[in-house]
Amino acid sequence: MTTLRIAGGKVLRPDMSVIEADVLVDQEAGEILEIGPDVDGEDEYLDADGSLVIPGLVNGHCHVAMTLLRGYADDKPLDRWLQEDIWPTEAELTPDDVYAGTKLGVLEMIKSGTTAFGDMYFMVPNIVEAVEESGLRARVGHAAVTVAKDDEAAEEDVQTSVEIAGQYDDSEDELVSSAVMPHSLTTVATEYFSDFAEGARGLDVPLHYHANETTGEVDPIVDEEGMRPLELADEHGLLGSGDYLAHCVHIDETEIDLLADSGAAAIHCPASNMKLASGMAPVQEMLDAGVTVGLGTDGAASNNDLDMFDEIRDAAMIGKLAADDASAVDAETAFSLATTGSAEALGFDSGRIEEGANADLAVIDLDAPRLTPPHDLVSHLAYAVSGSDVRHTVVDGEILMRDREVLTLDEEAVIANATDHAASLVARAEADD
Ligand SMILES: CSC[C@H]1O[C@@H](n2cnc3c(O)ncnc32)[C@H](O)[C@@H]1O
Ligand SMILES: [Zn+2]
């Protein structure tokens, strides 16, 4: 057994208490072995003096390769943003673009303390190649869209989503797992719902889709089907334990109960919901009803970064506004959304510093003016820490970043390559205009 010792700092425990302790990791098992003062054993060492060891953050919903479209189209609502700017440009994406954009995204995540993420996109093999090089943990999938396609193309897209899920199916040792991913309840025709449900249940993998993001998406379902979108999803077998739904902004009490009863999780994406003016998700209500709620950035084109510390703060702020209650989505709750919440939603044994859990950790440098004085470190994690305060990042016991140097990726080369790919992608899209 080889071990990693993270020593000399403070450690955030699952009950949100902060203790002075070392963390010992079994690198072969990729698990936390021991937490305590002066633990024994050390093949590798990380200094945590003046720092706080926290569970790595889990980005529950992302389109990682969309980093190439960061800042390309802002200040529009979802529908116009997708139809006028994003989808025409995505039509020009090549596998190499997706690889370059994913590399940029995983670099940004490692640098801001994210250790695992859930991704939904296309050209999944190119995404997986970049993720595996980075050392991050991820659940990935191919999002199928069937509307505005002929039957053959629609069926092929549905099949691809199921096949990709089978190809990257869960395996004990793998950092990459998968899910079956209909894009949303409006961009996939109802006649295909059972194919997704049967595909996912047959493979024993989750379903992941966008749900109830805008009123423009909810109202047509209510008008045409005479029921709420999550009732429709439930009726077609798309709501089960282990499934996770992005957004859940416009959901009513019946739908909240459906989530709680089925065990399906919601992934809250506050920055994207604010930027696209989609609305405010009832996060505190969902939590009070017993729904598992995780946190995600959505793509970098609607956020516009992948820093989960921003997301935690946004979740706390908008959670209070949505509930009209300053005590709603408090600091501990907001931080839990990004750790235990997202980890549970994605089916990862991560998000907490506990013996036996995945050794997915981030170490925060507390020596910054914005983190002074240290009255309450959980308050700082929710309201004051920024991704740039992350000093070390560890996934599965492997050090991905030491003292802000990313060890698995060549930072300069990744940025240069993504810049080139973004420029030629946009040039191609604009030439077609
Ligand atoms: C077909 S791959 C995934 C697809 O989703 C698009 N997308 C990005 N952000 C959102 C969002 O907030 N709601 C719905 N769809 C979104 C992305 O551009 C890809 O085309
Ligand atoms: Zn999304």
From TrEMBL:
<protein>
    <recommendedName>
        <fullName>5-methylthioadenosine/S-adenosylhomocysteine deaminase</fullName>
        <ecNumber>3.5.4.28</ecNumber>
        <ecNumber>3.5.4.31</ecNumber>
    </recommendedName>
</protein>
<feature type="binding site">
    <location>
        <position position="298"/>
    </location>
    <ligand>
        <name>Zn(2+)</name>
    </ligand>
</feature>
<dbReference type="Pfam" id="PF01979">
    <property type="entry name" value="Amidohydro_1"/>
</dbReference>
<dbReference type="InterPro" id="IPR032466">
    <property type="entry name" value="Metal_Hydrolase"/>
</dbReference>
<dbReference type="GO" id="GO:0046872">
    <property type="term" value="F:metal ion binding"/>
</dbReference>
<dbReference type="GO" id="GO:0050270">
    <property type="term" value="F:S-adenosylhomocysteine deaminase activity"/>
</dbReference>
<feature type="binding site">
    <location>
        <position position="61"/>
    </location>
    <ligand>
        <name>Zn(2+)</name>
    </ligand>
</feature>
<feature type="binding site">
    <location>
        <position position="213"/>
    </location>
    <ligand>
        <name>substrate</name>
    </ligand>
</feature>
<dbReference type="InterPro" id="IPR023512">
    <property type="entry name" value="Deaminase_MtaD/DadD"/>
</dbReference>
<dbReference type="GO" id="GO:0090614">
    <property type="term" value="F:5'-methylthioadenosine deaminase activity"/>
</dbReference>
<comment type="function">
    <text>Catalyzes the deamination of 5-methylthioadenosine and S-adenosyl-L-homocysteine into 5-methylthioinosine and S-inosyl-L-homocysteine, respectively. Is also able to deaminate adenosine.</text>
</comment>
<feature type="binding site">
    <location>
        <position position="210"/>
    </location>
    <ligand>
        <name>Zn(2+)</name>
    </ligand>
</feature>
<keyword id="KW-0378">Hydrolase</keyword>
<keyword id="KW-0479">Metal-binding</keyword>
<keyword id="KW-0862">Zinc</keyword>
<feature type="binding site">
    <location>
        <position position="298"/>
    </location>
    <ligand>
        <name>substrate</name>
    </ligand>
</feature>
<dbReference type="InterPro" id="IPR011059">
    <property type="entry name" value="Metal-dep_hydrolase_composite"/>
</dbReference>
<feature type="binding site">
    <location>
        <position position="63"/>
    </location>
    <ligand>
        <name>Zn(2+)</name>
    </ligand>
</feature>
<dbReference type="InterPro" id="IPR006680">
    <property type="entry name" value="Amidohydro-rel"/>
</dbReference>
<dbReference type="InterPro" id="IPR050287">
    <property type="entry name" value="MTA/SAH_deaminase"/>
</dbReference>
<feature type="binding site">
    <location>
        <position position="183"/>
    </location>
    <ligand>
        <name>substrate</name>
    </ligand>
</feature>
<comment type="similarity">
    <text>Belongs to the metallo-dependent hydrolases superfamily. MTA/SAH deaminase family.</text>
</comment>
<feature type="domain" description="Amidohydrolase-related">
    <location>
        <begin position="52"/>
        <end position="399"/>
    </location>
</feature>
<feature type="binding site">
    <location>
        <position position="90"/>
    </location>
    <ligand>
        <name>substrate</name>
    </ligand>
</feature>
